[in-house]
Design goal:
eight-stranded mixed beta sheet, Aminopeptidase, globular
């Protein structure tokens, strides 16, 4: 894949189902990390329904040709991103970054993160946030290499693990 092959764009309605398929594929690897498999299935149902959330400010997709290979969601703030948790982040928040497992390691997640940073800058934000967990060590390495730093005040616990907040200063 050359850099010219990869396009980052906003999700079009006709691509929604394909983007959901990429999200599901990208999160299937975590099934065995849940102590209760029903929690995993509940999370997958959440992921399947996530693109229908009216509080999403923007959905970005990565395409090679006509094939969607990655996606992420951007919310305007923590309250919109985490309705049930009321996390008081007053800056854009990235959620559900996913790259299809068959094409990982080619810089797609990095390009999606760069596009989300550009979006946050255009919105006049000073920071961009995201959450991850110890279940996702590859994601943590990516975020830290990219320049995200822990923001402990916005961590939260759910089920049997901690969801860790990361911040990128713009």
């Amino acid at each position: 894949m050359s850099q010219l092959d990869l396009i980052i764009e906003e999700l079009a309605p006709y691509d929604k189902e394909k983007a959901v398929d990429v999200l599901v594929s990208s999160y299937e690897q975590y099934k065995n990390s849940y102590s209760n498999v029903q929690d995993y299935y509940d999370y997958m149902e959440y992921i399947r329904a996530s693109l229908g959330n009216p509080l999403i400010a923007k959905v970005l997709i990565a395409k090679i040709g006509h094939e969607i290979v990655g996606t992420l969601q951007i919310f305007s703030n923590g309250t919109d991103a985490y309705e049930d948790l009321n996390i008081p982040i007053n800056a854009p928040v990235v959620r559900l970054l996913g790259v299809h497992p068959k094409i990982r390691g080619r810089g797609i997640a990095r390009k999606l993160l760069e596009a989300s940073i550009n979006y946050a800058k255009v919105q006049g934000a000073n920071s961009l946030y995201l959450h991850t967990s110890e279940k996702m060590p590859d994601a943590i390495r990516l975020y830290e290499r990219f320049g995200f730093v822990r923001s402990l005040e916005y961590d939260y616990d759910i089920l049997d693990f901690t969801v860790m907040c990361y911040k990128y200063d713009l």
